[in-house]
Design brief:
The structure is a homodimer.
Chain A: E1 11-21, E2 26-32, E3 42-43, E4 45-48, H1 55-67, E5 73-80, E6 91-100, H2 102-107, E7 116-119, H3 130-147, E8 159-160, H4 161-172, H5 178-188, E9 191-198, E10 206-211, H6 213-218
Parallel strand pairs in A: 1-6
Antiparallel strand pairs in A: 1-2, 1-4, 2-3, 2-7, 5-6, 8-10, 9-10
The first copy, chain A, binds a DNA duplex through helix 5.
Chain lengths: ~230, ~230
Amino acid sequence: MIEYSGQPHYLVAVDCIVFGFDGERLKLLLVKRGLEPEINKWSLIGGFVGANESPDDAANRVLKKNTGLEGIYLEQLQIYGEPHRDPIERTLSVGYFALIDIHKYEAQLSDEYHAEWFLVNESPKLIFDHAQMVADARKKLRYKAALHPILFEMLPKKFTIPQLQMLFEEVNDTKIDTRNFSRKISSTGLLIKLEEKDKSGSKKGAFYFKLDKKKYKANFQAFLNLIPNLKL
Amino acid sequence: MIEYSGQPHYLVAVDCIVFGFDGERLKLLLVKRGLEPEINKWSLIGGFVGANESPDDAANRVLKKNTGLEGIYLEQLQIYGEPHRDPIERTLSVGYFALIDIHKYEAQLSDEYHAEWFLVNESPKLIFDHAQMVADARKKLRYKAALHPILFEMLPKKFTIPQLQMLFEEVNDTKIDTRNFSRKISSTGLLIKLEEKDKSGSKKGAFYFKLDKKKYKANFQAFLNLIPNLKL
DNA sequence: ATTATTATTTGTCAAAATGACATTTAATAA
DNA sequence: TTATTAAATGTCATTTTGACAAATAATAAT
């Protein structure tokens, strides 16, 4: 087989910044690293890109292995390729951010996988440049969520408007006016009101809504300015 | 030296999608590939990531080598990593899109570098997955340019409003109303009007403007909706 | 000198979107 | 029956938007 002569070869990994929402707070899924160096330290979910898979494939595989979940929302963040970011040997890592409905994950046997959820603001120290990856991913999540309805990926099938608003407030670290928010949300036409109410949060109860998936897919590109005074 | 045992290693390259604007049309900078396979075919400007450089470093080095220019606006696009995208051996490529003031480049000795400008819509067939990279880069350029003032990176120090508008129209492949466009542009406060006029395009002449670089840097994040009926 | 030409520049107005603000409502608990 | 609590909804002034055409400045032609 011909090769490009004399060029160095590197390991290529993927690392996933996995966000979830428990109904109140934004969370981050971490695992204890299973190999040296830094074994047993907290780390993003990651792994090496195999010979017959693309980085996207690798990210999906690694996510399934660590959570049992398939079909997770995944988006390429960027590549991390500083020469010495991994002390053992040169490894470039493709960062992905993933959005999970946390309840789907909790439905899995949590012993089978040793990933753990942390509040994003109370995460432990992470290995290598993983803290930078998380910071970049939070920024990108804010950016995208301001323009596209990706946050629904973190909600269960049925959710309430107050829940949705809390999620937006968490992601953007801001308070949003209830009246303006619900006006904006309903103007998108993406939500379908259900009969049922969620009585857990109040005496009155909040109506459940579900996503209009047809419109969601059709309108994924146009969902501007859900955050007041948006400054990207 | 310790290594991660048994993991495959790959070549890692960078490829730059270089956009320029000649005052009327959007252009793409290509080179004839200098090595087998596909030698002498048209290709994006690219190269392998060296042992002591990051992909960002490599992109800057490769751009300087092929154009003589430094300090070019560069942004990571995404990674291209399908297992067989390069027929010789597995190579992952980090795509970058670059924005150049085409006049700076023309000031260089054009014989010294054999890169050539093509109209983006009349580019030759490209090697490997480079056509896909160009398509992705155009999409991302539209996206970013709708929200951030990056298109100024393609203009000379002095430029006119009609030129600026033509650039926006080229990038977005649309027509924009002159009155609304100049209202929007001036509301950003990013432009400083000069005394001088550009007489080349008309009898009346169009006033030159320059970028207020302080405001440009300060407001890089907030420059929304320059394209009417924006649908991202 | 006057007029014609041509791209540049600027103005209006109605409609829609935005942001700030407080009250009503529904269900349960007291 | 009343108190409590979160959910749901309405108003209004301001700003932004999009659609539309007339005026201007310089040169070329007569």
